[in-house]
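INFO batch 0412 | record 1 of 1 | parsing
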Amino acid sequence: MGAQERDERIVELLEPVLAQSGLDLEGIELTPAGKRRVLRVTVDSDDGVGLETIGEVSQEVSTALDASDVMGKTPYVLEVTSPGAERSLTQPRHWRRSRGRMVKVHLAEGGPVTGRVVDSDEEGATLKVKGQPRTYAYADIAKAKVQVEFRRDDAAG
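INFO prediction complete | emitting tokens
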């Protein structure tokens, strides 16, 4: 089984397990680590993901993987995590969950734009850029990432 087929089987196995807990599977990453591998499963929800939820779902994911042959015979370490502070925005749900957050957008045609997410839907997002609302279609966005803010200045917008 190739890596892509294995990854697809892992996703098919885990998505329903996570959905039962109200979580979305945001990604998987399987990397070698000496004589074993590390399987990192990234999950999220509209309400965020707390440590207690991570602990509970880790057990459920582990049980599902152990009951399947998808990981083969090579030992692995399971890590279940939530997206980092500077997450990439690749799905409409990511934009919805980032409402009120500062993002840096690289347009497919044009330069970077930084603004605060004020609204989003299935087609695009509206950012407050230098005090003015600007709507961008997802098709026009090459890359977008949430920015870490240590001190939020609401007046600056």
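INFO post-check: The beta strands are 24-33, 36-44, 76-81, 102-107, 112-120, 124-129, 132-137, 141-146.
INFO record closed
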